[in-house]
Amino acid sequence: MNLRKKTLLVMAAMLILVLAIGAFIVETIFLNSYRQLEQRDIQTDITRFDKALEYEMQRIGALTYDWAAWDDTYRFMQDKNTAYITSNLMVDTLQNLELNFMLFYSTSQTVHFFKATALEGDDYYLSVYELDEYFAENPELISLEKEPTAISGIIDVAGLPVLVASQPILTSQDEGPPMGRLVFGKILSGSLLEHLHLMTGEQISISPLDQAGLTSDQLEQLALLPPEEAVLIYTTPDDTIFAAAPIRDWSEQAIFILTVDKPREIFRQGRASMLRLGTAFLLAGLIGGSMALLFLEKGVISKLTRLNSALQNIRSLGYSDQSLVIPGDDEITSLSRELEDTLKELSHAHADVNNHLNFQRLLVKLSTTFINLPISQIDAHITKALKTIGELAGADRSYVFLRRVNEPHIVDNTHEWCRRGIQSVKSMLQGIEEPSLPWFFRRLRRGESILIPQQRNANCCKPNPSARWLWSPCRQADC
Fold first, then answer.
1. Which domains, from first to last, does the chain contain?
2. pLDDT of 377-428, one tens digit each?
C-alpha cells in the first residue's frame, strides 16, 4: 500500500473517529440536556395543572362557605321554606356559579334538598342517587360528629372525577349548632377540563386507574414515589412525550391518573440543531481534510513520489550525475540534496575503485609483458606502456625520468608519450637538477606521489602552465 492510500485511510479513520466522538458527546451531553429540558417542561405543565386545580378547589370551597355560613341557609335547613328556593335556587343559579350540583344534607345525613345541572360541554348528568350512594359509603364528608370542619377534594362518582367541597351549615356569625352540611360539586370534565386546558396550554386527560393505559409496573412505580414527586414521564416512538401523575381524593388515595401528552418539540428542535451542528462539523472536517490532503499531496507525497521515481530510474539505468534535487526549501528538498550528494560521493568512490582496479590490472599486464621482453625491445614497450597508462588516466602526456648514473642529483626525461595534437616537451625536460626543486625531489625520495593541480612556477612545466601534473616515484628495480 503506497503512502497516498495510507494517508487517505488515516484521514478517513480520523474523520470517522472525530464524528463518533462528536456523536457520543451530542448524545450524552447535548441531547440528554434537551431530554431533561422537555421533562422539566412537561413537569411544569403538571404543576400548572395542579395549581389550576387547586385554584378551582379554592373557588368552590369559598362558594360553599359563603352559602353554608348564611342565616337564610341556616333557616332553610330548619323549615325548608320555599322562599329560599324561589329566591336562591333558581334554574340559572348553578350555571352562574359554574357548579354541577349542590346537596343540602340534614343532621341525620339525609338529603334535604338537591339541585343539579349539566354545564356547557358536559356530557353526563349526576343524579341524586349516585351522589347519595357515594356519600353513604363515605359518611366522613357529611358527618357532623366531633367538631365539624370544612372538607374538600376530588371524589370518584360513577367513574367521574368530581371536585367537591363540604361545609357545616351555620349562621352568618359562624355559630351553631350545625343544621347539616352543604356540598357543592363540579365534574372535572367538559367545560372545566377545557378551562384547565386553556390555563395550562396542554392536552389533558383524566382516566380511572384501570383505564389510564399504564402497566402494573408503572402504577406500582407511581405508588412508591412521594406524593410531591409522583410523576411518571416517558416517550413513544412517534416522538410524543407523556407525563402521568396520580390524582388523589380527599383522603389522599389515588383514584385517577392525570395524563399530559405533547409533541417532543423541544427535543426535535434540539436534535435538529445538533444535526445542523454535526453537518457543519462534517463539512468543516471534509473541507479541512481535503485541504490537508491537498497540502500533503502537493507538499509531501508528490515530492516523495518524484524522488522515488528518480531513485528507481537510477537503480534501473545507473547514476550519471542527473539531478535529484526537489525544488523547495523544506525537509524533503534537504533530503533530496543529501541523497544527491551521497550518490555523487558513492559514484566517485565507485569510479575511483574501478580506476584503481583497472590500473592494478594494467600494472600486472605490463609487468608480465616486461618480464618476458628482450632488452632491445624495452624502450619501445616503455613508450607503449606510457601511452596505455596515459590513456587510462585521461592525461595529455606521460613521462619517465631517470637519474644520471654519474650525476644522481640530475634527472632526464628519457621516455615521453603525448596525446594526438599535444606538442612534445621531452627536449625541454633534460638535465633537471634536484637543488632547483628541493621540496619536489625530497617527496619523491620518500616514495610519495605528487599532484600539482595547477602549475605556476616550475621550470619543468613551462610549456603548459594551466595543466595538472602527477608525479609518482619509480625505483629502478621496478622498471
1. 69-200 (3.30.450.220), 202-263 (no CATH), 373-478 (3.30.450.40)
2. 888 888 888 888 888 778 888 888 888 888 888 888 888 899 888 888 888 8
Q: How far is it, in rounded angstroms, from Cα 258 to Cα 207?
A: 7
Number of Cβ atoms within 10 Å of the Cβ of 122: 18
pTM > 0.85:
no
Contact 185, 162 (CB under 8 A): yes
Provide the angle, in degrees to the nearest 10, between the axes of the packed helices 190-200 and 31-68.
130
Classify residue 405 by burial, with Cβ atoms within 10 Å: 0-12, 13-18, 19+: exposed
The DSSP letter of residue 464 is: -
Q: How far apart are CA 322 and CA 76, in angstroms?
A: 126
Residue 404 grid cell = 644520471
Spatial separation of the C-alpha atoms in residues 95 and 24, rounded to whole Å: 58
What span, in angstroms and rounded, lies between the C-alpha atoms of 404 and 386? 21
Tens digits of residue pLDDT in 61-78: 999 999 999 999 999 999
Q: What is the dihedral of CA 138, 144, 149, 152, to 10 degrees?
A: 30
What DSSP character marks residue 456?
S
Residues 6+ apart with CB under 8 A from 234: 218, 241, 242, 244
Comparing C-alpha atoms, which of 68, 186, 201, 214 is closest to residue 122? 186
pLDDT tens, residue by residue, 168-177: 999 999 887 9
DSSP state of 277: H
The beta-carbon contacts of 290-299 under 8 Å, at least 24 apart in sequence, are: 292/11, 293/7, 293/8, 293/11, 296/7, 297/4, 299/330
**Distance (Å, whole) CA 260 – CA 212:** 11
Amino acid identity at 379: D
C-alpha cell at 116: 343539579
265-296 vs 31-68: helix axis angle to the nearest 10?
Answer: 170
Q: pLDDT category, 196, cuts 50, 70, 90? A: low
Residues whose CB falls within 8 Å of the CB of residue 463, separated by 6 or more in sequence, listed in order:
423, 425, 428
**133: Cα separation from own chain's centroid:** 67
Position 201 scores a pLDDT of 63
The Cβ of residue 31 has, within 10 Å, a number of other Cβ atoms equal to 17
Share of the chain above pLDDT 70, in %: 89
